[in-house]
Give the backbone structure.
Amino acid sequence: MALPSINPTTTKAWKKLEAHFENVKGLEMKDLFAQNKERANQMAINWEDFYVDYSKNRITSETINLLLELAEETKLKEAIQSQFSGEVINKTEGREVLHTALRAKATDTILVEGKNVMPEIFEVKQKIETFSNQVISGALKGYTNKAFTDIVNIGIGGSDLGPAMVVESLQYYKNHLTTHFVSNVDGDHVNQVLKTLNPETTLFVIVSKTFTTQETLSNANTIRTWFLEHAKQEDVAKHFVAVSTNIEKVKAFGIDQNNIFPMWNWVGGRFSLWSAVGLTISLSVGYKNFDSLLAGANKMDTHFKSTDFDQNIPVVLALLSIWYNNFFNAESEAVIPYTQYLTQFATYLQQGIMESNGKSVDRNGDLVNYQTGTLIWGEPGTNSQHAFFQLIHQGTKLIPADFIGFAQSLHGNQDHQDKLMSNYFAQTEALLNGKTKAEVEAEFEGQNLSAEKIKELTPFKVFEGNKPTNTIFIKKLTPESLGKLIAMYEHKIFVQGIIWNIYSYDQFGVELGKQLANKILNEFDNQAFDNHDGSTLNLLNLYKKLR
Ligand code: F6P
């Protein structure tokens, strides 16, 4: 069954939401809390080690009911069923979307073109486990018979961001191997990393679903050339492994058949860290932790597909995001993790969210007449408090924010953890309540300021408040809870794509720039550049002169 293709703005629920928005847009959340003492309990979901409080949103219970009606009318339930059962829901690329199969149980049956893919998935998982154990234990050695000390992941986009984010996030669980990531085609990136490496003890993991990506192949070639300055051709087999769907191209690069970790077309690049794309994760934190990450994601999958929508974390978060994006016209969302370990989390989500839902043509092939994908950005608290929070608190834009926090620190310094978490709780409270003129004036009392000065300063010190936040409060940062968190956002992306009636799993928008870059690259050696606008032509000529 094809995905439904319903323009959400034509649904009854959308019309009701528009009318409802007019009634509630001016409501103050602090009044809603005062009127309903049960609000915080009613608007929270307690699931496993997650507590998701969405009560600090500009909503009433009717808002949620109408958003749930929207989900119903746009046939979200049926779409979830289509995704999990392996239907070709990535229609523009003619593919199934089955990253959920990668973390499913061995006993599950998931069919792709009539064939159960679970045995293949577990075969590759076994290969990842065996290889990781051999590298970590030192059993597998380099060309001078030394154990490996460094791993270099060579990939870009989904073949880099996921593994890089997870390795950074799970640093606490890391083993002795030093992990590096080379992604940018910028030669300074790869050369900077190479400077720190010893070829005798470095393992290179080339990750490219297509094995045609310019950046990855250029970096892999540069690295192989550097390696061959130290070692012999036959040593390549000991130091280079690849993850790809394109086995022929990998072999042509010179990678040993045994060193190929396959993946499948039904795994989208930005959802691929659960596949062999996660090899670097497994090498860095051990297979057991990698498997826990997958197990966490699998638990979130079960929650997502089997929980009623009003208690379904990804569904509720997606609906709230639609509420702000399409009714309040909010353009962006912030994700603020209160742990330094999640430094790369927002960057990772940028690809997941913006490459998936940055679309303006609907599933009927028509231009949409409503807003789709949100801008996503963020940095860990408390650093971000000293950077961009000013704008969230007192700027002119409405920026809904997810606050992700963990009750327990990993290193156990309670003093720091209490300070960190006091900020975590205080910020959402401050964004909710703001500070009134009367409160500002009261603060001035006893400060020995003239009435005139107080009058002058007061407007600058007032906080409007009424700024929406979700609090995602998790017991502890573990491989399993991280897996749940990532899968939560993956499903949020899916829900939004379904309701916005767009295809979330293609990414044609990245092609045009690539094509033009190839054309320009070919022109660098020509006498003249052809067919460019005046601005680009001037810049190209200047580059040619200066390079
Ligand atoms: O940015 C476009 C894209 O196709 C991403 O979707 C993908 O993750 C990335 O390029 C890398 O692709 P590959 O894994 O095929 O090298």
In short: The radius of gyration is 26 Å. The chain has 23 helices and 13 strands.
